[in-house]
């Protein structure tokens, strides 16, 4: 059995933006460079217009039931099914849409009249399920871009990302997500350990009703900070934020009760 030797990921062929001709080839290479940029017009107005026209024809042909069953009756359901599938597509995220708009404005790969499609933000759909990055991920990406340090850029880029273009910076989303997860885990650990340590010191070394009153205030403040951080730093739903905050508060209360005994 033959085995493939000498292959490394550095030999992977990468579509470079600068190697493509200006125009639709370069625009296609840019959109293809990141799955998040795969956004196109769904032509909602045209589809609605065609459906209305088809509806008008069907109203005129209501008296010809046999003809509808043999021709229009087979065609119309498929069009409604296509319309339903198109409605299932989500809109691109604001960040990804802004990236495509900026590329069109700065590079101008095609004439302005033909690039106006990207301005129809209400009519755009993302072929890939769009995921809005949370606050922490956006801050990491903005900070790395603002600091403009080579070693930071290398951390959040792979060889393939660097080979895509010499003018644009592509960050590896999985690395940004892992970094954001690590930072959030550190913050949660601090928010859990710090109030417990303060309450422990106050109850053991100070004691009395004043210490317990201060601990209640610390628990309230810590719970408030935890809920705010959970809401800002993640894309969690309100029900998920409420559940996480309740669990966090329960841990602090149980600890305070255990110290008191």
Automatic annotation (TrEMBL):
Q: Keywords in UniProt for this one?
A: Membrane, Transmembrane, Transmembrane helix
Can you tell which superkingdom this protein's organism belongs to? Eukaryota
Residues annotated as domain DUF6594:
24-72, 82-253
Q: Which residues form a coiled coil?
A: none
- One Pfam entry for this protein is DUF6594
Q: Enumerate the transmembrane spans.
A: 182-205, 211-234, 241-260
- UniProt-listed PANTHER family: DUF6594 DOMAIN-CONTAINING PROTEIN, DUF6594 DOMAIN-CONTAINING PROTEIN-RELATED
Protein name, UniProt field = DUF6594 domain-containing protein
């Amino acid at each position: 059995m033959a085995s493939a030797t000498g292959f490394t990921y550095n030999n992977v062929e990468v579509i470079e933006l600068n190697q493509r001709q200006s125009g639709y080839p370069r625009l296609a290479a840019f959109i293809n460079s990141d799955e998040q940029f795969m956004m196109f017009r769904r032509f909602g107005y045209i589809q609605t217009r065609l459906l209305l026209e088809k509806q008008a024809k069907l109203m005129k042909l209501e008296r010809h039931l046999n003809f509808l069953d043999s021709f229009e009756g087979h065609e119309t359901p498929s069009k409604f099914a296509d319309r339903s599938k198109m409605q299932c597509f989500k809109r691109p995220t604001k960040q990804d849409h802004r990236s495509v708009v900026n590329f069109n404005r700065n590079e101008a790969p095609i004439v302005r009249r033909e690039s106006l499609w990207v301005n129809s933000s209400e009519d755009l759909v993302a072929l890939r399920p769009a995921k809005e990055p949370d606050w922490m991920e956006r801050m990491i990406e903005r900070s790395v871009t603002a600091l403009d340090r080579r070693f930071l850029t290398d951390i959040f880029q792979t060889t393939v990302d660097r080979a895509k273009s010499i003018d644009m910076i592509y960050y590896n989303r999985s690395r940004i997500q892992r970094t954001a997860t690590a930072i959030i885990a550190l913050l949660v650990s601090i928010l859990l350990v710090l109030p417990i340590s303060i309450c422990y010191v106050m109850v053991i070394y100070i004691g009395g009703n004043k210490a317990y009153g201060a601990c209640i205030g610390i628990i309230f403040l810590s719970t408030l900070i935890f809920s705010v951080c959970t809401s800002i730093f993640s894309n969690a739903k309100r029900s998920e934020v409420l559940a996480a905050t309740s669990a966090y508060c329960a841990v602090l209360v149980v600890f305070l009760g255990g110290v008191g005994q």
